Structure to design on (352 residues):
């Protein structure tokens, strides 16, 4: 009985925090006001201040976690909506996304190894360029920590949005498809939301890149990591 | 109320496809996660018109537009790893930053190159 009450409190609390942050983000459209970022910080602070264990919070949190799998399945819908673009530019988008996936995995592993980062942290970092629910499953299967993976994904998303203008300039990416694929491959849904603000075509390219990237990374990450570590 | 029922049904369909994806993964011992298999499966079902978009549309839309809500509990787990981000842990953020910059730049350049090549062929 007690667990049901705790669970419900955790779920309702998470929903309220999320909705509040979502409204705030609609007023102040900045990467640092993203509900996933501010919302997670608020809940972490609540747990720390009231000395609540993560395990206790997860009595309810686990119910929300249950929906991560279907959330990934749902991504088929935006991909389906972009089927014309997918058909027309399948090869360019696939090539960009594939090379990006390889670069993301390898650069992450190499930099972390070079700096002497602990192995379980490296495993949590490998899939940072793909959307959270896929990334945490990949990290878990490699031997990483899911919450760390979730945080690295969030950081990749936020950093990506902040640096995108400089990267486009430095790499001379001025084509709308190139920009969309770049931001979608590196910064998943957070990047895609940003790309959509600039226009529908870039947003569509970013959506396709984000979804393809999730598929590609989940296949090649275990292979590359085994080879590199 | 009718709308809520519809959304719950749609999410149940997504959940069912997720379970099928998991089953396929386990049965054939694939490395690709069951959820990703489910996504590919749903895309194929929609693309081949095996299922109607209206069977999943409202629920899926709501799901996708509030996707990050579902990421919060997993992310909050960082509360057990906070010590990692003090001192030298800042390096982790720098690794993510550099790697993200490389992914964005290189994937952008590669796809742009292929798109331009394609555009030239058509003109």
């Amino acid at each position: 009985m007690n667990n049901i009450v705790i669970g419900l409190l955790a779920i309702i609390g998470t929903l309220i925090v999320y909705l509040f942050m979502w409204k705030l983000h609609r007023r102040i459209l900045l990467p640092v006001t993203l509900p996933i970022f501010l919302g997670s910080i608020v809940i972490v602070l609540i747990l720390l201040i009231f000395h609540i264990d993560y395990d206790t919070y997860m009595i309810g949190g686990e119910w929300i976690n249950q929906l991560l799998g279907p959330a990934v399945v749902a991504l088929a819908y935006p991909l389906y909506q972009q089927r014309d673009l997918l058909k027309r530019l399948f090869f360019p988008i696939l090539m960009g996304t594939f090379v990006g996936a390889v670069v993301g995995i390898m650069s992450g592993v190499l930099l972390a190894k070079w700096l002497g980062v602990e192995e379980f942290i490296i495993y949590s970092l490998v899939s940072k360029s793909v959307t959270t629910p896929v990334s945490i499953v990949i990290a878990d299967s490699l031997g990483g920590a899911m919450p760390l993976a979730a945080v690295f994904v969030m950081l990749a998303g936020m950093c990506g949005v902040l640096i995108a203008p400089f990267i486009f300039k430095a790499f001379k990416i001025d084509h709308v498809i190139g920009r969309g694929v770049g931001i979608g491959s590196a910064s998943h849904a957070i990047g895609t939301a940003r790309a959509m603000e600039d226009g529908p075509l870039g947003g569509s390219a970013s959506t396709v890149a984000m979804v393809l990237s999730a598929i590609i990374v989940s296949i090649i990450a275990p292979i590359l990591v085994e080879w590199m570590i | 109320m009718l709308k809520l029922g519809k959304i719950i049904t749609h999410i149940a369909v997504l959940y069912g496809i997720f379970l099928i994806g998991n089953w396929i993964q386990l049965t054939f011992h694939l490395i690709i996660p069951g959820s990703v298999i489910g996504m590919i499966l749903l895309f194929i079902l929609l693309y081949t018109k095996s299922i109607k978009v209206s069977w999943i549309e409202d629920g899926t839309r709501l799901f996708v537009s509030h996707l990050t809500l579902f990421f919060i509990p997993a992310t909050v787990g960082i509360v057990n790893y906070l010590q990692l981000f003090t001192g030298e842990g800042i390096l982790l953020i720098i690794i993510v930053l550099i790697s993200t910059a490389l992914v964005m730049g290189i994937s952008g350049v590669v796809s742009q190159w292929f798109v331009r090549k394609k555009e030239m062929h058509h003109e």
Chain A is about 85% helix and 0% strand. Chain A has a mean pLDDT of 95. The first helix of chain A runs from residue 2 to 27.
